[in-house]
Amino acid sequence: MSRLSRRQAIVAAVALATAAGAHAQAFPTKPIHIIVGYSAGGAVDIIARSLGQQLQAALGQPVIVENKPGGGTNIATKALIDSAPDGYTLMLAANALAANVSLFQPAPYGLDRVTPVSFVGRVPVVLAANAQSPVDSIKSLIAQSKAKPDSINFGTPGNGSTPHLAIELFERAAGIRLTHVPYKGGAPAMNDVIAGHIQTVAVNALEVLPHVKSGKLRVLAVLSEKRSPIFPDAPTIAESGFPGFEASVWYGVVGPAALPAPIVARLHQEVQKALAAPEVRERIASAGGEVAPGSSAMFADMLRSEQQRYAKLIRESNIKPD
């Protein structure tokens, strides 16, 4: 390369860096949309709206939460990956982002189509039973299942849902066989366990909370490393004899592929600030969750690890979507 060409290349690189920096400094100049792949009122929606309020105040632009349920969150993910990589369209993603790559065939997208921005937190999966059921602990569930395999069933929000995959992992860890009963959401599954049509249900902590408070359901175990603040009397799965086992619904902010690094850095910074706000922490805690801030790089590594873990489980268990 000639001296002139090298000089021109350096000038071009500096110009690009300057333009990117100026764009990031100006960002945002219009409303930001946060896509949620679930209906309003659920844990993801609650967390997205709480974050959105903080981001709106910090960024000085409206932050609009858009609910796009359906397709196991694939509808929402497609809307994200088809959007312009300018920071104005984001998504609050959960485990399905990593699982759906293997659950649906052909794969609806690859993880290279998204840009991890910031990890947000976790809400544990809980396994619950009718409060009058003789299955009143993980110990009794395992004993009955081992005495008569497949005699205990469990309802979930659907094939390939996070609770379904969590119980599949638990079955492997415990060496038992349960019968899966998939539903179109957590609410009908809980209605059936309350009515006695099924024996147990696996959902996220927020969904089961009102039924535990009313005395209709009993939490057999919280599938997290430590006890849930909203179920302080319920044992963890580790306390029930399975140390090291953990299954939770996690949340993180992602953008489309090729999101400029300066915008990723700005958004990450503002999300981290939002997660430090007492009202956000309280809102997530009230949903049964825990704030777990993390870097964009950490979130990217976790996404890849989760995708590999789910791919193995889905393949070996021959799990199909609803």
Task: Describe, in plain words, how this protein is organized in 3D.
This protein has 322 residues and is of the alpha/beta class. It has two domains: 189 residues, D-Maltodextrin-Binding Protein, domain 2 (3-Layer(aba) Sandwich), CATH 3.40.190; 99 residues, Periplasmic binding protein-like II (D-Maltodextrin-Binding Protein, domain 2). The chain has eleven helices and ten strands. Strands 1, 2, 3, 4, 5, 6, 7, 8, 9 and 10 form a ten-stranded mixed sheet that branches. The longest helix is centred in the N-terminal third of the chain and has 24 residues. 44% of the residues are buried. About 4% of the residues have low confidence.
Question: Short description, anyone?
Answer:
The protein has 322 residues and is of the alpha/beta class.
Residues in helices, as a percent range: 40-55%
Query: What would you give as the CATH superfamily of the largest domain?
Result: Bordetella uptake gene, domain 1
The low-pLDDT segments are: 11-22
User: What is the assembly state of the chains in this entry?
Assistant: single chain
Radius of gyration: 22 Å
Share of residues in strands: 15-25%
- CATH fold description of the largest domain: D-Maltodextrin-Binding Protein, domain 2
Q: Per the principal axes of the C-alpha atoms, what is the gross shape?
A: globular
Number of domains: 2
Q: Structural class, judged by helices and strands?
A: alpha/beta
Q: Biggest sheet: strands, sense, closure?
A: 10 strands, mixed
Tell me the distance between the termini.
58 Å
Output the helix-strand order. Answer: HEHEHEHEHEHEHEHEEHHEH
The appropriate CATH architecture of the largest domain is: 3-Layer(aba) Sandwich
- Tally of DSSP β-strands: 10
Q: What is the class of the largest domain in the CATH system?
A: Alpha Beta
Q: How would you state the average pLDDT, rounded?
A: 89
- Count of alpha and pi helical runs: 11
